[in-house]
Write a structure and sequence with these properties.
By secondary structure, the protein is α/β, with parallel strands linked by helices. The protein has six helices and 15 strands. Strands 1, 4, 5, 6, 7, 8, 10 and 12 form an eight-stranded mixed beta sheet that branches. It has a three-stranded parallel beta sheet with strand order 9-11-13. Strands 2-3 form a two-stranded antiparallel ribbon.
């Protein structure tokens, strides 16, 4: 349907997501699952990263091997809920740099309000993964990516766990050059801007604030 949107249908991701959606899942398990899903999604989403040939000397002989080109990755979680995905990614890419963008949705207007932005100095030489479990109206993701684009990174990808069709439509229109990875494309948004069926408020469930 969209050539720059990938929905990961890996059974492990789908199984973990089924537990995440359950309202009876505890905050402790929710946090662990968000992190595990982020690891699995990161493994899949990094498949396209360009490799280059380098020489190493094994204990036996010199040989040519492949490694990821250049300065590698930066992960930028959208606060708060995006923080829940960071550990899962750094478990696979321990040397990545981490930026932070603080945005919250105004409850009335549903428009994102930015309150913090700190990005790695050398982001211009990095491939960036912007992470947030939820892409609902798309406002937060669109704004975060616009902020990061000002710093001209090598590339940007957006990784969320659940996306709404409305969010995908708005995001791909605003940033057609940014690939979106998700674990589920849900049915719709409700009148309060929550994803249906979704999983509720991701930040509250990760941090146990409700
Ligand atoms: C949630 C979520 C996204 C945003 C998605 O954050 O983590 O950032 O909503 O909605 P949108 O696509 O309509 O912008 P929230 O604003 O609840 O802030 P929080 O993470 O601090 O709880
Ligand atoms: N933010 C959330 O945390 N959940 C939704 O369903 C929508 C926005």
């Amino acid at each position: 349907m969209y050539n720059n949107v990938t929905v990961f249908d890996h059974p492990l991701i789908q199984h973990k997501l089924s537990i995440l959606r359950n309202k009876e899942t505890s905050s402790k398990d929710f946090r662990a699952l968000v992190s595990e899903i982020a690891t699995l999604m990161c493994y899949e989403a990094t498949r396209e990263l360009p490799l280059e040939a380098v020489e190493v000397e094994t204990p036996i002989c010199k040989t040519t091997v492949k490694h990821i080109c250049g300065k590698k990755l930066a992960v930028v979680p959208i606060l708060r809920a995006g923080l829940g995905m960071v550990d899962g990614i750094t478990s696979l890419v321990p040397s990545c740099r981490i930026g932070h963008i603080g945005l919250y949705r105004d409850e009335e207007t549903l428009k994102p309000v930015e309150y913090y932005c700190k990005l790695p100095k050398d982001i211009g030489e990095r491939d960036v993964f912007v992470v947030d479990p939820m892409l609902a109206t798309g406002g937060s993701g669109i704004d975060a990516v616009s902020q990061i684009k000002l710093r001209k990174p090598r590339s940007i990808r957006f990784m969320c766990i659940i996306a709404a069709p409305e969010g995908i439509e708005a995001f791909t229109k605003a940033h057609p050059d940014v690939h979106v990875y998700c674990a589920a494309l849900d049915e719709k948004l409700n009148e309060n801007g929550y994803i249906v069926p979704g999983l509720g408020d991701a930040g509250d469930r990760i941090f146990g604030t409700k």
